[in-house]
Specification:
Layout (H helix, E strand, L loop, with lengths): L30 H16 L3 E6 L4 E2 L5 E2 L2 E6 L13 E2 L8 E11 L7 E8 L3 E9 L6 E11 L4 E8 L5 E2 L9 E9 L19 E3 L7 E3 H13 L3 E5 L6 E2 L7 E2 L4 E5 L13 E2 L4 E11 L9 E7 L3 E8 L9 E11 L4 E8 L5 E2 L9 E8 L1
Parallel strand pairs: 13-14
Antiparallel strand pairs: 1-4, 1-12, 2-11, 3-10, 5-10, 6-9, 6-12, 7-8, 7-10, 15-18, 15-26, 16-25, 17-24, 19-24, 20-23, 20-26, 21-22, 21-24
Helix pairs in contact: 1-2
Length: 384
């Protein structure tokens, strides 16, 4: 039965249970304790903080100016957005006292009609820190849609905005039709810091005669730390990594038959130690088996009058490949190109995944190394 307590921020990491000694006087396990220690944690992971919104109307995007996209909410589970006040901003889960990582995916279609120029989608945190996504040549007589996907670190009351940039030389409208409009989705992904635990076993089906214990196991004994605490801790701290190429001096050779693994020389998140900045820096090595969402964006510097095409893919163990996007470069600018790839991939312990890039400009091109424009690799455990 519900306890009648006021709703509080969920405890998504249960405390550790201890065994009572033979002479110790125990206390009753109250409904309020179970509600805070188990029920709220399970409820949160079943329905974590999530926002989804779409463009609230066609919006004029000035040239060479990063512009935030106004959104109308479709889903807002934790009341982090207002359609009226600052409609471009989405707040992190304000009920939480911890800081977390959110998987953020956005897209912006631009109704551009100029050749040789570029459009870029991005995410902006607290009005100061920007992460760029797809960087594509603008089209003629069709909308060019740029996508951005990233793991973003947000503390309580931080806010995030979907942005777009273009350098056509004049203002460009975003598309806002029934089938094509700007979109942004945020969903809680993992805690910023915490335990690294073994992959939990399937919780036992309890019977009326079972004895609940802290750690003691055996016939008829159900250790709560194994069957409850560790399972919920795993959901709170699943394996995740956010890697990028900041500071790299890598170049990608030209050639239609040449795929090159992109070195990730900087880590913002790697809670299970699957990546090394110095040894095989292009690889994320699986530490816990399971199904992973993997996203990469390869960002390359382009000279004026760039030629050929740019492409990205994901590689597992250098032998299994997942295709991504490709683009022609914008010939009238040096803003560069960035192509993305996403896949759900089942990995075993020891398997490694890499982002690979290909280009056919005719000579080698540098991998972007700036804080906002760097190539990125995102890896997130999604299930067994």
């Amino acid at each position: 039965m519900p306890s009648g307590l006021a709703l509080l921020a969920p405890i998504t990491t249960p405390t550790t249970w201890n065994e009572l000694g033979p002479a110790a006087a125990g206390t009753a396990v109250t409904a309020s304790t179970l509600e805070r220690n188990i029920s709220s944690a399970v409820a949160y992971h079943r329905r974590p903080a999530m926002f989804q919104g779409v463009g609230s109307g066609a919006q004029s995007i000035p040239t060479t100016t990063w512009t935030s996209i106004n959104l109308a909410e479709v889903i807002d589970l934790h009341a982090g957005h207002s359609d009226d006040a600052n409609p471009s901003r989405v707040l992190a889960d304000f009920t939480a006292s911890f800081d977390d990582w959110y998987l953020c995916t956005g897209m912006v279609p631009l109704a551009a009609s100029v050749a040789g120029r570029v459009g870029i989608a991005g995410l902006l945190v607290n009005g100061t820190t920007r992460f760029e996504g797809g960087k594509l040549a603008l089209g003629i007589s069709h909308a060019t849609t740029m996508m951005v996907c990233d793991l973003v670190h947000l503390e309580a009351l931080d806010y995030l905005q979907l942005q777009v940039w273009q350098n056509s030389g004049g203002a460009v409208l975003t598309e806002n039709t029934t089938t094509k409009k700007s979109q942004l989705t945020l969903r809680w992904a993992t805690s910023a810091a915490g335990d690294t635990v073994a992959t939990p076993s399937v919780p036992r089906t309890w019977t009326a005669d079972d004895l609940l214990t802290a750690d003691s196991a055996g016939a008829g004994q159900v250790p709560l730390n194994t069957h409850v605490r560790d399972v919920i801790r795993w959901l709170r701290f699943p394996p995740a990594a956010r890697l990028d190429s900041q500071g790299t001096a890598q170049t990608i050779p030209s050639g239609s038959g040449s795929w090159t693994s992109v070195n990730m020389t900087s880590e913002q998140l790697d809670n299970y130690g699957g990546h090394d900045n110095g040894v095989n820096p292009s690889r994320y090595v699986c530490q816990r088996a399971g199904l992973y969402f993997v996203h990469g964006v390869s960002s390359l510097a382009d000279p004026l009058g760039a030629a050929g095409y740019r492409a990205s893919r994901l590689a597992v163990n250098g032998t299994r490949f997942y295709g991504g996007t490709s683009t022609i470069p914008a010939t009238g600018t040096t803003a560069g190109s960035a192509t993305a790839v996403s896949a759900h991939i089942r990995l075993r312990v020891g398997d490694y995944v890499e982002l690979q890039a290909q280009q056919t400009h005719g000579s080698a091109l540098a991998v972007s190394s700036g804080a906002a424009s760097a190539s990125r690799l995102v890896v997130l455990w999604r299930g067994l």
